[in-house]
Amino acid sequence: MWSKILSYVPEWPIWGQAFLLFLLPILYLKGFQWLRSSLKKGTFSNKDQQNQDASTNSSSSNEETGSYANIQLTGDYAKDLISVKATFGQNADVFIREFTIRGTNTPAAVIYVDGLVDHDLIDTHMFTPLMIKGVPDTERKIFEQPRDANELKAYVRSQLLPVSQVQEAETLQQAARAVLTGKNALFIEGMTGALLVGSAKGKSRSLEEPVSEALLRGPRIGFTERLSDNTGILRQFGGSNALFMTKHQVGTRVKRDLVIAYIEDIANADLVTEVEKRVQNLDMDIMLESGYVEQLIEDDELSPFQQVQNTERPDRVVSGLLEGRVAILLDGTPFALIVPSTFSMLLQSPEDYYERWIPGTFLRMLRFLAATIALLGPALYISFISFHPGLIPTKLALTIIQTRQGVPFPSIIEALIMETSIEILREAGIRLPKPIGPAMGIVGGLIIGEAAVQAGIVSPFLVIVVAVTAISSFAIPTYSAGITLRILRFFGMFSAAIFGLYGVVMFFLLLCSHLVRLKSFGIPYVTPAVPYSLSDWKDFFIRAPLGMMKQRPSMMHPKDPDRKK
């Protein structure tokens, strides 16, 4: 009797696999909890917090850095000009044009950077009124014997500079930063400080269709690298008097302008405050691209999923603003950021709303299916071939066995060979020049796949699986989301190679548990699935008719929840 009972007890290797299957999720969760707690902002020890506060106070008190940070511009022309020349050193592109204001004996100078300024503005609106027209005899006393320090400055601003943008700089560092970003600094004998005239006129490309988000139907215009152009485009698309844009400067060493845009009577005030707080806490010497900002303001830097959406399309930004979200635009990049972001947003395309609701729903559901195939396709192939061939229909199993005859590698090795080859080809196709990049990717894939099958390294069935997986990843509208699924695909393949179909299920459950815990600016990442919100399902897996979408997403807690009264 006991021998019969013991015959049903699994052998030790099976017990070992079961123990690992139970232990790995716990180790995974505990490891990530430890890393997250150690990197999470505000969870340092008291000593570290004091050091951080001290460094923060030090950096805030020394906001202006450099050898001439504390030098005030006193109005002593000769002394100020010596400090200016010492500050800019031997910069060949910085020009100092000295002259005398007509009608007076007052010396003056204009400092500018060649290539960043508008020479017509300097010649027509600065040199002409100061050097050619000059100061009338009745006003000459202002230059010779001004009543106070501000009288001369006010007169120059109001009477001698017919330009729209004039600012003031009190210190040498402020003037130097303004000059190096494209403004013209005007120094006049007897005038305290400097006047910053005009704005930068750097080289900018024309408006073009977004390369990373091509559509068949929709606007053919995208953002550019100039912030003023992007804010203008956003105003053009979202022409509302409630559209607010607040400007900030980011970067401790190299300052760049950043704009936070939101619709004041829709966006939740707490969300706007949180975005501004995170932007103000950015601490890096320069923000070269919005990707820097994206990585520094996201909630969980250890997650493979992006919690901030990036886009080149102004129509997508405006639609996000009308849902109660907040947009971030950085000077020098065409990519705007939208927060908060959810997983469903990464699989949505603006074209879903430009077509009728039935084609839009079909295409959206097709993308969810493509994302599933891109994530689990090779893993399911490995688990069925290596562990569960009995689950495959008989005729199909016999066909697969025939195609695998002579293949010297296990399924995991041949899958890794093909997947790695495809990823290398994809990356090479992106980096190569446009005329030959797509052709190289197609021809390279055909040649490598055919050669691998003829050489007996991989089976033809696997080539089909890898091809379908690669094509499915191309169907994802957001490029960053596609990269995430491509990376996670390899983890799914290893789980399938170790535990079979149980490993795939374990991998999928771990992924779901991570997504459920993930948040973007306080909004659950997989909402409206978890937490459940029936009203928001009208724009989740399906795209309901526009007449039925009367409410804004409830997860955003907008001030005005109604789209359609």
UniProtKB/TrEMBL annotation:
Name of the protein described by the UniProt record: Spore gernimation protein GerA
A GO CC term assigned to this protein in UniProt: membrane
Pfam name, any one: GerA
Record-annotated membrane-spanning stretches: 12-31, 326-346, 366-387, 436-455, 461-479, 491-511
Annotated keywords: Membrane, Transmembrane, Transmembrane helix
Source organism superkingdom: Bacteria
Organism lineage: Bacteria, Bacillati, Bacillota, Bacilli, Bacillales
Biased composition (Polar residues): 44-54
Region of interest (Disordered), residue spans: 44-66
One BP annotation, GO: spore germination
InterPro entries cross-referenced by the UniProt entry: Spore_Ger, UPF0353/GerABKA_families
Family: Belongs to the GerABKA family.
UniProt keyword Transmembrane, yes or no: yes
Comp. bias (Low complexity): 55-65
